[in-house]
Every structure is written in structure tokens, then in C-alpha cells.
Amino acid sequence: VSEGPGRFSIDGRVLIDKWSQPKAMGVGDFLGAPETQETLTLEAGGTYLLTLEYAKPEESPLAMVRLGCLPPQPADAIERASTLAAASDVAIVCVGFGGDWQSEGFDRPNMDLPGKQDALVEQVAAANPRTIVVLNTGSPITMPWLSSVAAVVQAWYPGQECGNAIVDVLFGDANPSGKLPQTFPVRLEDNPAYLNFPGENGKVYYGEGLFVGYRYYDKKKIAPLFPFGFGLSYTTFDYGPLSLSAQEISPDDTLEVSVEITNTGQRAGKEVVQLYVRDQQARLQRPEKELRAFAKVQLEPGERKMVTLSIARDALAYYDDLAHEWVAEAGEFEVL
Predict the structure, then answer these.
(1) Helix (H/G/I), strand (E/B), else coil: 311
(2) How confident is the model at residue 107 (pLDDT cuts 50, 70, 90)?
(3) d(CA 307, CA 258)
(4) Do 78 and 119 meet the contact criterion of CB atoms below 8 Å apart?
(5) How far apart are alpha carbons 264 and 110 in whole angstroms?
(6) pTM to 2 decimals?
(7) Over the stretch 68-94, which tens digit does the pLDDT of each residue have?
(8) DSSP string, 143-193
(9) What are phi and psi of 152, to 5 degrees?
(10) CB under 8 Å to 307, separation ≥6 — which residues?
(11) Cβ neighbours of residue 315 under 8 Å, at least 6 residues apart?
């Protein structure tokens, strides 16, 4: 039963009593509320009277309660998985979140996988070092088992063709070419918003300012678990030296940045070339570097292609909140 003003009884015996906690709750509060669980032993063929009572505080526009049941789980489920993994060539463990644990309508309490999923991965990996972990998650998680597994596939939530897509990647019929659109920190405390979220007295202070995402980790020199823009594939790529169309540009000019990419592996694949700019010296505080352009290029084994990206004045500018305008100062910039 989700937290809130409610009470659950079976044959008149109260099992869960939250009646003393009437409080106003929004939809987000309800969906993200912790659950209270009790274990029942019922006789096969028996008939039982289940009674669920709930109330709505006067100040709340909503009255919601959720009741559910889980089938009995074998006490040795993880041990059985480990035994099966030890007898297999490769172990594939699919873990992640369901709609009860992750949604747009509420926040997770931490970065851990729910339940005993970490223990499952750890014990399967101990039984078989050729363990692949497939993550159906929508945001970063802690991975205490990372050094013990052979591979991690970040599958996100691909939709109804999820199974076919993951199988194509695992069997090599498709070469994964994705890059992380966010930073995966080692722990929740490393997150830029950790000290300011969820806030106090109904207000959240966006204290990270400019330093959201990778900008924060760069500035604080905090090593992430996986950086923004990270992603492996079944082939490898080599980057040639950067070539600039000019060493100096005026405010109305566009700088062309070129780099030759070579597929040095045995498989066709795609690489995402990411162009960052670092302001060497600015009047206001700036990030260490900022993503200003990117392009995905597909290459056959041994193939080379020249990738050209453009930088205009807006890629060198920052917003001056005192002047109320975008400012691109004269000076030196580093292209990475």
C-alpha cells in the first residue's frame, strides 16, 4: 500500500495502518511514495474478506490509494541464477526500473537499482566472468559491480521492439553507435544539484547555474563513472589532427573545423565527432569547455572521411546578465 491516509484489513485483522498520517498529496507525491509491505500466508481454495479504507484530507484535491500483491518469490532465486550462469557460455542479466520506480511524475530517492538486482548481478558475475548487463533505465544508476562484468548495454526504454533491438546488438547484427546524452556520476553526492534538490519550504534553488551536466564535473575535477558523450562500439576509430580554416576570425566570420576519421576496426560503424570550445580568458566565469557542434559519420572498415564542423560568433558568446545581451569577447579560444 502506498503511503497516505489508509488502512488495509483481512477478515477484520488490520495488517497495514496508515490512518494516522493524513496529509495533502499531489499526484507526484502519490506516485513516488514509499510502499508498506506485509507477507500473508493464505490457504489454497480459501475465501478471505479484504477491506481497504482511505480518506482525503480537506485541503487536498485528490484521494488516492494503491493496493497490489506480489506472487511468492523463491528464496533461492539468485542462487539458481548463479548456478545457471556458471553452466553457460555467456550470462545476460537484464535489470532496471518499472513504472513503479521511474516516471516523469516523481523523483527516485537514490541512484540504486531497486530490490536485490545489484546482488543478482554481483553473484551471476562471480559465477561467470562473461556476464553482460542490459540496463532498462532512463537515467544514471550506481554500478558497484561494474569492474566484475564483461559488458554493459545501456538500452534505455526502446519500446515494443526492445527485445529484437537488444538481441541485434548482443549478437552483433547491429553495431551500437550511441553516445551518452548525460553524465553518469559515481554516486548521487557528485551530482551538481545534490545540495539544492529537493529544496525547502516548497522552493528549489537552481544553484548550479551554468555548471549543469559535464560542465560541473569538469570544473570541479570530479571523475564520473561515464562521461557525457561516451559510447563504445564493435569497431575503433582514429582521429587525425584538427585543421582550422583560419587562426583568427572577425565577428561575422564562420570558422570551419575539419578532422579526418578512420575506421581502424573490422566492422562497419558510426562515430559521433564532438566539437568543444574553451574560452581561454573571459570577464565572467565560464565552463572548462562547451559542446558547440557534433556530427555522426558512418565508415566501413579501413575507410576514412573528413568531417567538417562550423563555429560562428554565437558559439563563442556568453550571456551577460548585467548587460542583458550575448557577448563574444575578443581573445583566444581553444578548439577541442
Answers:
(1) strand
(2) confident
(3) 6
(4) yes
(5) 40
(6) 0.85
(7) 888 888 889 999 999 999 999 999 999
(8) -TTGGGSSEEEE-----TTHHHHHHHHHTTSS------SS-B-SSGGGSTT
(9) -130, 130
(10) 258, 259, 260, 261, 273, 295, 297
(11) 277, 292, 293
Q: Who contacts 236 (Cβ-Cβ below 8 Å, separation ≥6)? A: 263, 264, 265
Query: Residue 324 is placed in which grid cell?
Result: 542583458
Residue with cell 545534490: 194
Residue 125, number of CB atoms within 10 A of its CB: 23
- Rounded to whole angstroms, the maximal C-alpha distance in the chain is 84
Nine-digit cell string for 8 = 488495509
Annotate 81-143 with DSSP letters as a single string: HHHHHHTSSSEEEEEE--TTT-BTTB--SSSSPSTTHHHHHHHHHHH-SSEEEEEE-SS----
Query: Across-strand partners of 201?
Result: none
**Sequence letter at residue 336:** L
